[in-house]
Amino acid sequence: MNPIGGSEIIKAQLISQLSENELEGINLVTSICHPQFVQKDKINIVWQQLSYDQPNVQYMRERKYVDSIDYFVYNSHWCFNRFRDHFKIPEYKSFVIKNSSFTYDTPIIKKMDGRLKLIYISTPWRGLEVLVKCIEKLNKTRDDFTLDVYSSTKIYGTEFEKAEGDNFKKLFDLCKNTKNINYMGYATNDEIREALKSTHILAYPCIFEETSCIAAIEAMMAGCYVVTTNYGALPETCGDFATMIEFNSSGIQLINNFTSALNTVMDNYKNNVYKEDLELQVKFYKKYYSWETRIEEWKGFLNYVRTEKETH
User: Fold this and answer.
1) Which of 3.50.50.60, 3.40.50.12160, 3.40.50.2000, 3.10.50.40 is the CATH number of 6-99+290-311?
2) Per-residue pLDDT reduced to its tens digit, 11-46
3) Region for residue 157 given its phi and psi (left: phi exceeds 0; alpha: psi -120 to 50; beta: otherwise)
4) What pTM value is reported for the model?
């Protein structure tokens, strides 16, 4: 199995909406900065989804490599500014095109049947352990919810799973044995999108510096209320629609703060407090984060880079 994480999914979605003519002469590299991916006979574009501190972007320190790339596209203003601060990137060939999602045809206000449906849809090291501890605390005071956990090392391919899977077995077993948690394991993006249609709340106590967050974009477009941290680009991705707690490197404090916030959000959701907010949220994300909007930005950008090449 090959890696099929967020970067792979969104690149496939982009390419599926572009014609061969629109991609002709373009070498679009996703995230990994390495000379081996440069094609001298094409326009080289690096579409950056990784954070500035990741090993696969450290060739950005090499001026020869940076000069070999025609354009850099960043998936958020946060990502752009971090690369600008750390690598002194050439601003004249740097652009921001945000991530996006296909839209949903689903009710904004969803049935509860007496229980709230929460979901976690990220890798285990981005906040799952924190969330499980939050659920353990919530279980002491309420029993009106279920958390579905879609998390696995399999998403990054068979080799990665073989190398790292055992490191998270204990955490996954804890999910399986904790009241009100359904451990779902790996699922395709289509399966997760289907699950989001009946989900009320995305619970994501993120401890990883996201450069954007496709999971949050898809959840918010599906009408899910989001509870997360203000770490990395999450404030830019979620705007004022999500409930955000301040990131805290103290695990105990983060667990306590997130548990309190999630508890309040669940009460508010059950009391229909978020009806108007969710209606506005879905309209906003359909307008500004849908592929219908974003593909036009990409087409405009690709037309620009080809025109620049022809005139220089």
Assistant:
1) 3.40.50.2000
2) 999 999 999 999 999 999 999 999 999 999 999 999
3) left
4) 0.94
